Here is the input.
Amino acid sequence: MNYNIALLRGDGIGPEIVDSACEVLTKVGEIYGHTFNFTPYLIGGAALDACGIPLPEETVKGCKESDSVLLGAVGGPKWDTLPGNMRPEKALLGIRSALGLYTNIRPAKLFSAMADACLLRRDVAERGVNIVMIRELTGGIYFGERGRRDGKYGPEAYDTECYSEMEIERIAHVAFRTAMLRNKRVVSIDKANVLESSRLWRATVHRIAKQYPEVECTDMLVDNAAMQLIKDPAQFDVIVTTNMFGDILSDECSQITGSIGLLPSASLGDTTCGMYEPIHGSAPDIAGQNKANPIATVLSAAMMLRYSFGLEKEAVAIETAIENVLNDGWRTGDILGASDATPLSCTEMTAKILEYIK
Ligand code: IPM
Ligand code: MG
Here is the structure.
């Protein structure tokens, strides 16, 4: 088969890690008889520099016409002082919304080889971490009304958390369907003791839960969830939560699974065209130094094969290669742990993964 993939390399380490994932996809294509065509488009700071806006119309069009999208990361200090609607991050929200990608799947699994990089006590880590976080991606405070105004004490700013029943229903269905294929447990995370939007969230999730009687559905307040993830991550199977809480808790998950450089994500809507990106950012401190860990992006490419193209065995081939690379002790700088071994560069890690793909 022939697949057209739009590449949004973006900023910072984005180009390095996307190129790495493309090499891996090309190799998988050679072995399994697929052709992946890559077309790059500008986004974020790179687009601002080239054409003065963070999300050019051509980029949106290109992504819509492609079979799927692979994104690196956006943002960096150079563009940090721009007004909110011109920031590189605005482009990321814009493309998620333009493509209707309301579901963000963020698996967080502790590879056995990563036990030393995991910050949890060994007996806690040994119970295992294998969580799929379902983060709502096109609603909530990220997209609610915001602005500046004159308030009681002078200038003030506001952002609004707003969820419609429809938005909660569709993400709840994704969570329950995901749980049906796993251990049939969903924890819905909210702040229903304070927020009205969370009270609607909770009631709606439970209404949808009735359609999935085999799935156990419980609620957890977000502050408690932040604590429980550290205390006993093994208790979680599928988590469903809002855009904002999912953003924060998925970074927390990265520290109980070793490194944020390892965690992939898939953003999906109602079509097979999805966007795949590591959960980490553009890491400007190490950009252009060939130090980035490409694994999160390569695993995101594996998710693309699985979710957008239905290429399960090809996805598993990538995931197995990475697991074996890690089992054999190969490390980039972020996952060295206490070891004083010389870390692999981004290109060296990519070459290792290519070598291990069967
Ligand atoms: C993420 C990132 C983005 C988000 C930023 C860069 C806008 O942190 O994908 O987790 O908050 O969604
Ligand atoms: Mg984030």
Notes: The chain is about 40% helix and 20% strand. Residues 14-32 form the longest helix (19 residues). The longest strand covers residues 2-10.
